[in-house]
Amino acid sequence: MTRKEQKEERRKAILMTALTLFVEKGYYDTKITDIAAAVPMSTGLLFHYFESKEELLYEVVQMGVEGTKAFTGVSEIPVPADVYLTGFLNQMFSFAKDQPWVFNMFVLMGQVRRKGMPEEARRLALSVGSIDFTAKLIEKGQEEGVFREGDPRLLSTCFWASVQGIMEEMAMDSRMKAPDPRWIVAILRK
Amino acid sequence: MTRKEQKEERRKAILMTALTLFVEKGYYDTKITDIAAAVPMSTGLLFHYFESKEELLYEVVQMGVEGTKAFTGVSEIPVPADVYLTGFLNQMFSFAKDQPWVFNMFVLMGQVRRKGMPEEARRLALSVGSIDFTAKLIEKGQEEGVFREGDPRLLSTCFWASVQGIMEEMAMDSRMKAPDPRWIVAILRK
DNA sequence: TAAATTATTGAATCTAAATTCAACAAACTG
DNA sequence: CAGTTTGTTGAATTTAGATTCAATAATTTA
Hints:
Two copies of one chain form a homodimer. Chain A contains ten helices and no strands. With 190 residues, chain A is mainly alpha-helical. The first copy, chain A, has one domain: Tetracycline Repressor, domain 2 (Orthogonal Bundle), CATH 1.10.357.10. The first copy, chain A, is elongated, with a radius of gyration of 18 Å. The first copy, chain A, starts with a helix and ends in a 5-residue tail after the last helix. The model of chain A has no long low-confidence stretch (mean pLDDT 96). Chain B binds a DNA duplex (30 and 30 nucleotides) through helix 1 and helix 3.
């Protein structure tokens, strides 16, 4: 099975490289040749592993979806909603340095949701219910009295849009320090 | 001079159409033929008015820069910083319905600042000092005691990233209601 | 070890989309 | 009005970049 494993490793290497470049330069500005050169491997070979650039994006997103399940799958939150979200952001921001790929994955997932991204990948990214998940969490927080009144879904959307915007900014400018997570959670806090 | 005016009108029509499409579908996914068809005019004619797609983007951004001067040019803010920013967001969000083009312009200006956008247009968009302007405003707010402590520039960056993220979300999904501006200003508020 | 399978390359092909162009129409100028 | 300038079209050209392919090397299987 060494051969199959080898192939898996290679695929993963390509996926990771693609992830990095997609976030660094944007999907459309990242050429297949850029990815191949960065792996490194010949352009031709890349198509031995992935059908097309779109499929490549799709699989990167697929990988992100897997990873996200762990997050949106949690059903019992044992701490107050504000504490949970602050902790989440804290971790996410520290990932920016320790595990850039986790961080980049989040950034990419957000970007792929936008209009103008390849349709299949977009649908897949959109299928992750992080907005809904957080909306529920926000409702919980409202009941707990820590979050302000207002449509939980709209609050959730704002929260994520802000997080997305800030993460993109961080991905764009590596000099940027991570903000204090409480600043962002303040959007929700009463 | 009717001829010259005519030409100006036409140019403006193209610029506006391009602005709308760039925001709606993204720069790279907007084809020159899309713009021409939407104006409407033949593809060829479009090049009678603009050198290239990049130049077209550049001029849209140019227009945005002009418009933004009015905003960042203000030197005397007569009201507390938090009130000023809340009012600003309030206006911006209501523009989304009344004057979509103003709103779209803001969204586009933010997008063009990102890596992977055509270099010249990007530089131009980056030349607008809205982050610095707001940073000063935030310092003022800190002195007034209404804003939290923290690096004003980082706070400013977060503020704008959030606004950008939310405006993009609004541009993407017309059903989305505008959030309460105070939610966003809460990022800054003590 | 010989056949079969898989990895690899880089140049050749294909394709979508930007850009140019030749031709014609309308408007303006003197 | 005759000529010149500007507007307009859509098809032809060009080009950047994705995708294919024929050829070769490495690895596995039997």
